[in-house]
Specification:
4 helices, mainly alpha, 76% helix
């Protein structure tokens, strides 16, 4: 009971500091920031992977060039051994007459055949990998894509990186296949050179 003539104070409800519309705006802003962060992080990771892939591909190509140089040096040794073998045959001829041995076309050695086969394969386009110019171009545009803040541009950049990574994976597979073939040929070439050296050494010893 309250005294007569007095009024009970009405319970005051706390007024919301932020309206429902404001809450929705804050929530949407947070979601947008989350999506933007996800896009930015995904793009940064993809670009870092692309850079690693490009560097790896460059290193693979350098290794391939080194192996090709080694193969070329073995081919030169093989050519020298072929000329030496001709001289030994001439020296072993009792009559000293080896008819037209200078003019006769010698058959290709195993090393020369393998080298010719590799060159023919390369000229037929079996090695379709990205040029160094294309890799450098990727490096120049990588920073531009990393600095992009437009959502549509970020998504497009992410798709472009995924395509580049797929192409790089194919290029790496090609380089590794080439290197595997080169290793097999170099091993065979080394065996051929060693065999020729041993045979010529044995022939020269018999002549002494």
């Amino acid at each position: 009971m309250t005294p007569e003539g007095s009024t009970r104070p009405s319970a005051s409800r706390p007024r919301p500091l932020i309206s429902a519309a404001g809450n929705r705006m804050v929530r949407q802003t947070g979601e947008y920031r989350d999506e933007e962060t996800i896009r930015r992080d995904a793009l940064a990771t993809a670009l870092a992977t692309e850079e690693l892939g490009a560097n790896t591909l460059v290193q693979l190509r350098r290794q391939t060039e080194q192996m090709e140089n080694m193969s070329g040096e073995l081919a030169e040794v093989d050519a020298d051994l072929t000329r030496t073998q001709r001289t030994i045959r001439s020296m072993r001829s009792f009559s000293g007459r080896v008819k037209n041995w200078f003019s006769k076309s010698e058959p290709l050695s195993e090393i020369e055949e393998r080298r010719a086969s590799r060159q023919a394969s390369a000229s037929n386009g079996s090695r379709e990998t990205r040029s160094q110019y294309e890799l450098n171009k990727l490096t120049r545009t990588r920073q531009e894509r990393r600095d992009s803040t437009d959502p549509s541009a970020q998504v497009d950049a992410l798709h472009a990186v995924v395509r580049n990574l797929s192409a790089m994976a194919s290029d790496m597979h090609s380089e590794l296949s080439i290197q595997n073939d080169l290793l097999n040929d170099i091993d065979k070439d080394m065996t051929s050179v060693q065999t020729s050296l041993a045979n010529q050494t044995r022939q020269l010893k018999k002549m002494l």
